[in-house]
Write a structure and sequence with these properties.
This protein is of the alpha/beta class. The chain has helices at about 1-15, 20-35, 40-55, 60-70, 75-85, 90-100, 110-120, 135-150, 150-160, 170-180, 185-205, 210-220, 220-235, 240-250, 260-270, 275-285, 290-305, 310-330, 370-385, 405-415, 435-440, 470-485; strands at about 330-335, 340-345, 350, 360-365, 390-400, 425, 450, 455-465. The chain folds into 3 domains: about 1-90; about 150-325, Alpha Horseshoe (Serine Threonine Protein Phosphatase 5, Tetratricopeptide repeat); about 335-485, Glutaredoxin (3-Layer(aba) Sandwich). Helix 1 packs parallel to helix 3 and helix 3 runs antiparallel to helix 4. One of its GO terms (biological process) is response to stress.
Length: about 500
């Protein structure tokens, strides 16, 4: 009865499409895509395919394309996307196909410029539209290519064409960084300052006016400020650098740890040795040990000798481990891990059942996921730590790939970086649920890591990561050693 009702509702939705509210439809299909049963998803898929066959409406086709993709039917979605682009050559979909399939395949600034000119000729920018950030991605790419080739004038010209204030720092900062590498600080400074100004504009908006755009604009703020402070520091303007950092910390105190490296330099230059050491302690407690020699020098200077420095670091090391143990308590879980049989890069089947008796570390990742990739050196260090422990197995589950040639892309990526990882392809859909493994594990974002104990139970689940190699290694050790112990509830 439930399935019949679901199908009936979907069929009615198709019949009365023109009269119904599109947002309501998106909400209904969104719930099915996210948490519907296999029967509901199958019914939704059939309805979407029927809409794709019969409708002449661009909006309906785009709706069907979007939800076919979300329901895991990428091939059908890609085919429909091509159909939309042909039927509606001036549509947003056609524009997206051109950007993805033509523009991003261009090499060199001139080729990209020519492709961009074709884009705006055939799909002119509408200043009143809400999706102009799509053009900004393209403009930023053109500007960066000209900067890479040393054509500053063209790079700056294209940056000036950007449409969305909340996003333009994503174009400005890469060009500014390239200009700095080329020794052109004069041209780079205004770009960085503009990025800072934009971020501060959104940070200072009243709470009721803040939205996703504001959050996106503000997320890079600590990096922009640190980059400008580094320039001031190199120019001998330590006072200006320190003022800049302290102003930023006052504005976003929750982001204070992200300023610690630059703040330390400014404090040290200003003779504020104790405060400088305290900033390095913040970094140390986060598992960043690269400033240990600076800490020793500051400690010795403040105390008049190096007596007690070993005890000082022993205490800090204890705080690091305690912090990690407190942190991983938040990641605790205890439930049976969904079974799987997936192929590795050699075409061999690897199953969870075959690993019973081992602690298994699953790391869900994709080649396009920068946080995943940034965490890999740390994960490699953790794997090396356990390379002689037969009771521990690391598996790197490649999922959510967007390119049809994903298998070769994965092989090339692993070979290029010489990662000694056991990689499995998450492309086998469950016969009953129609889900890939990431969905069965409840993965909402990547990187996502699961620590499974010897009895096959998930003991820890964590998302996101840090590029800090030492911290990842320490964290993984604590997670794995805890999972080796019997569960106490």
């Amino acid at each position: 009865m439930k399935l019949q009702l679901t199908c009936a509702l979907l069929l009615i939705a198709g019949a009365t499409w023109a009269q119904s509210n599109l947002e309501e439809k998106r909400e209904a299909y969104g719930k099915i895509a996210q948490s519907g049963t296999k029967e509901q998803k199958d019914a939704a898929t059939q309805e979407l395919l029927e809409i794709a066959k019969t409708t002449k409406s661009e909006s309906e086709l785009e709706f069907a394309n979007n939800f076919l993709y979300r329901l895991g039917h990428q091939d059908s979605a890609d085919s429909l996307r091509s159909v939309i682009a042909k039927k509606f050559p001036k549509s947003v979909t056609a524009r997206g196909v051109y950007i993805q399939d033509v523009f991003y395949k261009q090499e060199g600034a001139k080729a990209k410029e020519k492709s961009y000119n074709h884009l705006i000729k055939n799909w002119p920018v509408d200043k009143t539209a809400s999706d102009n950030v799509a053009y900004d991605y393209v403009i930023a790419s053109v500007a960066k290519s000209f900067a890479d080739e040393g054509n500053k004038e063209k790079a700056l010209y294209y940056l000036d064409q950007m449409n969305e204030r909340f996003w333009r720092a994503q174009g400005y900062i890469p060009v500014a960084t390239k200009l700095l590498q080329q020794g052109d600080t004069v041209a780079a400074l205004p770009l960085i300052q503009t990025a800072i100004n934009d971020a501060e504009y959104y940070i200072n908006l009243p709470k009721e006016q803040k939205d996703n755009k504001a959050g996106f604009a503000a997320v890079g703020y600590p990096g922009y400020v640190s980059q400008l402070a580094e320039i001031y520091d190199a120019q001998g303007k330590q006072t200006e650098a320190l003022q800049l950092i302290e102003r930023a910390i006052a504005l976003v105190p929750e982001q204070a740890p992200r300023f610690s490296v630059t703040y330390f330099k400014g404090l040290e230059a200003a003779g504020r040795k104790l405060e400088a050491l305290q900033q390095l302690e913040i970094l140390y407690k986060q598992g960043e040990f690269t400033h240990k020699e600076n800490m020793k020098a500051l400690y010795t200077g403040l105390n008049g000798s190096d007596s007690g420095v070993d005890a000082y670091f022993t205490r800090l090391d204890g705080e690091v481990i305690k912090g990690i143990r407190d942190h991983i308590k938040e990641m605790e879980a205890y439930k049976p891990a969904p079974a799987f049989e997936l192929l590795n890069l050699k075409g061999e089947t690897v199953s969870l059942a075959s690993l019973k008796g081992k602690v298994v570390v699953l790391d869900f990742w994709a080649t396009w996921c920068q946080p995943c990739i940034r965490s890999f050196p740390g994960m490699q260090a953790a794997q090396v730590l356990y390379e002689n422990d037969d009771d521990v197995q690391f598996l790197f589950i490649n999922t959510w790939e967007r390119d049809k040639a994903y298998k070769q892309n994965v092989v090339d990526f692993i070979a290029k970086n010489k990662y000694p990882f056991q990689v499995l392809y998450d492309d086998q859909k469950d016969a009953e649920t129609g889900e890939v493994l990431a969905a069965k594990y409840g993965v909402q974002g990547i990187p996502a890591k699961f620590i499974i104990d010897k009895e096959g139970n998930i003991r820890y689940f964590l998302t996101g990561s840090t590029p800090n190699v030492d911290y990842i290694k320490l964290e993984m050790r604590e997670l794995i050693e805890s999972a080796k112990k019997p569960y106490k509830g």
